[in-house]
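Quick question, first post here. What does this chain look like in 3D?
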Amino acid sequence: MKLTLRVWRQRDAEAPGAMATYEVDGISQDMSFLEMLDTLNEELTLAGDEPVAFDHDCREGICGACSLVINGDAHGPERTTTCQLHMRSFADGDTIDIEPWRASAFPVIKDLVVDRSSFDRIIQSGGYISAPTGTAPDAHATPVPKPSAELAFENAECIGCGACVAACPNGSAMLFTAAKVVHLNVLPQGAPERETRVLDMVAQMDEEGFGGCTLAGECATACPKGIPLPSIAAMNKEWLRATRKVHR
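> Answer (accepted):
Ran it through. Tokens below.
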């Protein structure tokens, strides 16, 4: 395959950025999208040019580091992570636009790499449970109803990639925050911090500068792990419950 790549290049957070055009040839349909970028960077390095900076780690669809907007879609045309997107999703001769996540809360570090530490701060604000010291409890010591366990697992699948923010027309982080809140709040282990968790995490989300949620639904559509939109409604109910309890 021969492809034309239009890639966002930006030296650092302070420098202006612009799209740069590159031609790559000999791309196999069996390559992953990141392997195609590796091929481009090898060619740029051999030519004495600066390779394109992009984020990645496990390349197995687990860590969520491979955050790219491809032809206007978070992670590309398939509902998967960028590292699991293969070049057979494109056709010979295609022009592909490759950009970083676009959100004020995700500032560009360099080229396609953005700073997603705002997600870390949201988790730090309430993504924990009380754990008494001593010997480890037996696995069956705290019974968990099956529906609650399934709901917790469904939301725990969130890998914090940020596709929900990149896809949202408002740059909202509601789906991510909801996944982290619901994951713990439906479990008995998360009950002691139930109210403070949702209040603190929502407050931190607002402080980070994410946009407001208007339930456009693009977040759930783009999520590679299928976090459901009703998680946002579940978090809103938790927030209202906690707010009313605080103001009594």
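Residues 230-246 form the longest helix (17 residues).
The longest strand covers residues 3-9.
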